[in-house]
Design a protein that fits this description.
Length: 126
């Protein structure tokens, strides 16, 4: 398997993929077509089968789009961390209630979860 990297950018109506290692480029109307066209181009240039080619696409997006995607990634990471922290806080609340002698049924009602989930929370907190 031969591995190549293609730099991909938008050029008006086309996506252009350039394989600098070979000094070749191709274009496609849709981004979903770029990999296949690039593999075919490389296979033709090297006179080999497309199945022998692996291509990594390095897609360049406009600065504002890249910034939006970075922000979205950061927010997803913060959301995942907040969900994790919330789960720990609920377990701690369940454990504190249980330590005060509150029944599992009452813990379930207080936390707004099922009896089974309250039991899990108390068990997980231990």
């Amino acid at each position: 398997m031969r591995h190549f990297t293609a730099d991909v950018c938008r050029d008006e109506r086309w996506w252009v993929a350039e394989v600098a290692a070979l000094g070749v480029a191709t274009q496609a109307k849709h981004l979903s077509e770029v990999r296949l066209r690039t593999v075919d181009l490389i296979a033709t240039a090297l006179d080999c089968e497309p199945s022998e080619i692996s291509v990594e696409l390095d897609i360049s997006l406009p600065g504002e789009v890249a910034a939006d995607l970075d922000r979205a990634r950061t927010l997803r990471e913060q959301s995942a961390q907040a969900q994790h922290d919330a789960a720990l806080a609920v377990r701690a609340a369940a454990a504190r209630l249980r330590a005060e002698g509150v029944s599992i049924r009452d813990i379930a009602t207080a936390l707004g979860v099922s009896y089974q989930r309250a039991h899990q929370l108390v068990s997980e907190a231990s």
